[in-house]
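ASSEMBLY PREDICTION REQUEST
Request ID: AP-0331
Submitted by: J.K., bench scientist
Number of chains: two
Total residues: 294
Priority: normal
Notes: Please return the full assembly, not individual chains.
Input sequences:
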Amino acid sequence: MPSPDADSSTPDRRPAVDSPVLDPAVAARLKRDAAGLVAAVVQQHDTGEVLMLGWMDDEALRRTLTQGRVTYWSRSRGEYWRKGDTSGHAQYVRSVALDCDGDALLVRVDQVGAACHTGDRTCFDADDLGAVVGDPSATGGPSDADR
Amino acid sequence: MPSPDADSSTPDRRPAVDSPVLDPAVAARLKRDAAGLVAAVVQQHDTGEVLMLGWMDDEALRRTLTQGRVTYWSRSRGEYWRKGDTSGHAQYVRSVALDCDGDALLVRVDQVGAACHTGDRTCFDADDLGAVVGDPSATGGPSDADR
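STATUS: Completed
Returned structure:
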């Protein structure tokens, strides 16, 4: 079990709820990728809009679970990134759930303004790929050989 | 630009719409991980439920865009996996969108039955992490030093 860094002499303006390490019981259930990250699906709590997909390591998840605001690990910048600190478009946490195999999180939030850096409400607004719509009344299909 | 395999002598029961390679214009916009995959967030089209997170390579996305059913790449089994062919819990495609930086898809579906292999409706039903709820009326917070 990880040993929390309990050096009480470290200056720390965080409230008591903001424990210094991710709950080991949660950390033990995470199935991280090679970079130590899990995917975080972010959803507007009331409308159900899927706003974006971000990435979290243990520390980003710890901050998200304890601070009421969503923090990611930026793969492109290599740093923690608390959504809204630069843009004002904060994400206030409503709930966080881990999926059945531990490699994805569902973060339900109250999103201030646009979730996407382009100014769109969601990161999925701009690029519909024109998929063929499926027909539940049809049976089988062209790939019955797939399992 | 990729050269489609146009060997017309290959037995192929797929309809014409089911082209043999992913549209190069779409393929060029994908930002794949080291394993050649992008994340696929799957959402029930009418209720807004986030059902699961899966993974797609170019071929899984091609099948999903053209067949009306969702196909994933199974990282654990190392094979294509068309949801529902084994369980009956098919996902019929309504739309597929790519996100702003090309590394995530939002797949809106009509889900038959449970999306999760555990029998739960979604893969996020069972493990709420007890996050602290954020307060939009509060300002700043404990990590103003984060950006």
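REVIEWER COMMENTS: Helices of chain B lie at 24-27, 58-67.
SIGN-OFF: pending second reviewer
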